[in-house]
Amino acid sequence: MSYNDRFIRACRGEQVDRLPVWYMRQAGRYDPDYRKIKENYSLLEICKRPELAAEVTLMPIKKLGVDAAILYSDIMNPVASIGIDFDIVANVGPVIANPIRSAADVDKLKPIDVEGDLSHVLETIRILDRELDVPLITFAGAPFTIASYLIEGRPSKSYIRTKSLMYSEPAVWFKLMDKLGDMVIAYLRAHIGAGGKAFQLFDSWVGALAPHDFKTFVLPTIERIFSELSDLPQPKIYFPGVASGELLPTLTNVKADVIGLDWRVPINEGRRRLGGSFAVQGNLDPYVLTAPMEVIKEHAKAIIDEGIKQPGFVFNLGHGLFPEASLDKLRELTEFVHDYSAEAIKA
Ligand code: CP3
């Protein structure tokens, strides 16, 4: 089979024959074969076995017919290399043994050593580069989202300790953003060196901030990350996560190619707020997938009709897949987006 570059072309704002589709969290617990592997290995154990991590990455490609693969890993993986001891606890998420709460805790963080500590991640990317006939998207967590786990110690709804540190001790906060920014830049550059074809920076929880605070406390580091990586020709995606609609007008100077939208902002409105300089990706509410197939298709149609009005659109969800999602519905949705958008683009 020939290489499918539809996703890369859409990221660059080029014409496509039909819309590319991939799903955030497309490798995961909704798939019975994945659950079988999870009976014997934890997420971190899978990540440390490159052959197995590559196999899990490949699972949704064949089953769903998507146009891109996303590396099986977790946003927390690189923090092991800067000196953070963590675990991914089932049905909870990342849990940190010694949360970061003080200037001394931030000072202790080491520079990342990707080749030394994360060679298994690079090896997984190399295997996938040989085996895939669609582009491999690699990813990192963005500094705010990573910091929220490091500071809270576990998933949080309020981000109270994170915001408290940010507002009360800005010097400590900015030092932490700098160190996490350095980590992300080195980590993503190594991914591309190993064969990654695009990357996404997941800022899943930054929508918790007011636009003014996002601009002051987070955006400078986001701009620095994409500027320092701007010599790489591979498409770069920034996903500002859930409830991020109000942040979109602030992103003008981020040197990303694509911005991921959540489902609260219609595609046209998202494009308008972004000022026209980015491709966009999104944004079906993942929980629409619990509805009958006709309802799912109606929602997808509305997104596609807006998406195809301009080049530079990637069909995705507005946030990650959840464990109860149905493989059959996802396969049917992918086919529907391909067929319906192909007809609409021709017309
Ligand atoms: O998208 C993919 O298919 C690639 C794999 C991937 C995982 N995590 C594997 C995983 C990706 C892209 C991530 C990113 C990630 N991890 C994010 C950003 C994306 C988002 O959803 O906003 C965040 C916030 C995390 C942190 C994290 N890891 C959480 C909140 C959880 C869920 C805890 C739970 O059990 O519900 C995890 C665990 C995790 N990471 C799972 C998977 C498949 C589920 C548990 C497992 O299978 O072991």
From TrEMBL:
Q: Which reaction does it catalyse?
A: uroporphyrinogen III + 4 H(+) = coproporphyrinogen III + 4 CO2
Which keywords belong to this entry?
Cytoplasm, Decarboxylase, Lyase, Porphyrin biosynthesis
Q: Look at the named UniProt entry and state the broad enzyme category this protein falls under.
A: lyase
Q: What is its EC number?
A: 4.1.1.37
Matching SUPFAM superfamilies: UROD/MetE-like (SSF51726)
The metabolic or biological pathway listed in the UniProt record of this protein is: Porphyrin-containing compound metabolism; protoporphyrin-IX biosynthesis; coproporphyrinogen-III from 5-aminolevulinate: step 4/4
Q: Which residues form a coiled coil?
A: none
Q: What residues does substrate bind to?
A: 25-29, 74, 149, 204, 319
Please provide, alphabetically and separated by semicolons, the GO molecular function terms listed in this UniProt record: uroporphyrinogen decarboxylase activity
PROSITE patterns reported for this sequence: UROD_1
Q: Which residues form the Uroporphyrinogen decarboxylase (URO-D) domain?
A: 20-29
Q: Where is this site: Transition state stabilizer?
A: 74
The places in or outside the cell where this protein is found are: Cytoplasm
Q: Which Pfam families match?
A: URO-D (PF01208)
Q: Tell me the InterPro entries matching this sequence.
A: UROD/MetE-like_sf, Uroporphyrinogen_deCO2ase_HemE, Uroporphyrinogen_deCOase
Q: Provide the family line.
A: Belongs to the uroporphyrinogen decarboxylase family.
Quaternary data: Homodimer.
Described by its record, this protein's role is as follows: Catalyzes the decarboxylation of four acetate groups of uroporphyrinogen-III to yield coproporphyrinogen-III.
Name the UniProt record assigns to this protein: Uroporphyrinogen decarboxylase
